């Protein structure tokens, strides 16, 4: 039986966020962008070394699924009043700009999404956000990349207050989709977030293993979204 709804991860699955870079390599440009916003607001941002030191002090435990908003982290890093919400959002936007500027859509993304829609399947993106960044910025990115027109909804960790693999994320996604777990298929590139987490909620899951890193690990896996299309959605 074909799934009624495709639940699909974003970064590493539908889009390539980092390419040949890493979060650490993008960070200096992100901090510089936020610094310009802070300076334009009439404040005096700390030096880059101080910013990097403060940023590291707020590094999140990877096992902690509670969302730590980027606004809070930037408030601490730049010593901005937490009540300055408009300024913090502007700083978030500038902070995320270098990452978003290098983002590209994988070649197999649109063929998968188009096929799912042609089979009358719902499509819901289910994703964490890098650095706990605001969900509206990611929805703007989806629009710019042309992905918004190919999906029915998007669920980001900031919408739930929890990060994958917290069960609350998958429960919320199924509620948004209006689909029970046995009629969903989850596809993503992270074995814990996109396979073990959904499976714990009774959702069939497929690991997108683009670099063939998880051979023989017991996961139901493919190496491309075209394989997902042909093997699971046809």
Keywords summarizing the entry:
10 helices; 2 domains; elongated; 6-stranded parallel β-sheet; two-stranded antiparallel ribbon; Rossmann fold; alpha/beta
Report on the architecture of this protein:
- 46% of the residues lie in helices and 13% in strands.
- The chain is an alpha/beta fold and 234 residues long.
- The chain has two domains: 5-17 and 104-232, HAD superfamily/HAD-like (Rossmann fold), CATH 3.40.50; 23-101.
- The strands form two sheets. Strands 5-4-1-6-7-8 form a six-stranded parallel β-sheet, sandwiched between helices. Strands 2-3 form a two-stranded antiparallel ribbon.
- Helix 1 packs antiparallel against helix 4.
User: What's the end-to-end separation, in Å?
Assistant: 10 Å
- Rounded to an integer in angstroms, the radius of gyration calculated over CA atoms is 19 Å
CATH homology superfamily name of the largest domain: HAD superfamily/HAD-like
- Name the average pLDDT: 96
Count the beta strands. 8
Spatially, the strands of the biggest sheet line up as 5-4-1-6-7-8
**Overall tally of domains:** 2
Helical residue percent band: 40-55%
> What is CATH's topology name of the largest domain?
Rossmann fold
CATH architecture of the largest domain: 3-Layer(aba) Sandwich
The helix-strand sequence is EEHHHHEHEHEHHEHEEH
Strand % is 5-15%
Count of discrete alpha- or pi-helical segments spanning 4 or more residues: 10
Quick one: biggest sheet? 6 strands, parallel
The coarse overall form would be elongated
Q: Specify the structural class.
A: alpha/beta
Parts with pLDDT < 50 across at least 5 consecutive residues: none
């Amino acid at each position: 039986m074909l799934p009624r709804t495709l639940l699909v991860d974003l970064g590493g699955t539908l889009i390539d966020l980092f390419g040949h870079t890493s979060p650490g390599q993008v960070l200096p440009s992100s901090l510089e962008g936020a610094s310009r916003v802070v300076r334009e607001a009439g404040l005096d941002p700390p030096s880059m070394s101080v910013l990097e030191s403060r940023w590291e002090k707020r590094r999140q435990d990877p096992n902690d699924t509670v969302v730590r908003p980027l606004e809070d982290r930037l408030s601490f890093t730049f010593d901005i009043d937490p009540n300055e919400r408009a300024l913090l959002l502007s700083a978030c936007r500038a902070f995320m700009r270098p990452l978003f500027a290098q983002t590209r859509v994988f070649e197999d993304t649109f063929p998968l999404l188009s096929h799912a829609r042609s089979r009358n399947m719902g499509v819901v993106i289910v994703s964490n956000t890098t650095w706990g960044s605001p969900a509206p910025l990611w929805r703007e990115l989806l629009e710019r990349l042309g992905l918004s027109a190919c999906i029915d909804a998007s669920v980001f960790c900031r919408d739930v207050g929890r990060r994958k693999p917290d069960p609350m994320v998958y429960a919320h996604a199924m509620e948004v989709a209006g689909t029970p777990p046995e009629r969903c298929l989850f596809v993503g590139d992270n074995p814990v977030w996109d396979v073990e987490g959904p499976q714990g909620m009774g959702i069939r899951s497929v690991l997108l293993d683009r670099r063939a890193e998880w051979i023989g690990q017991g996961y139901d896996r493919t190496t491309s979204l075209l394989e997902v299309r042909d093997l699971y959605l046809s």
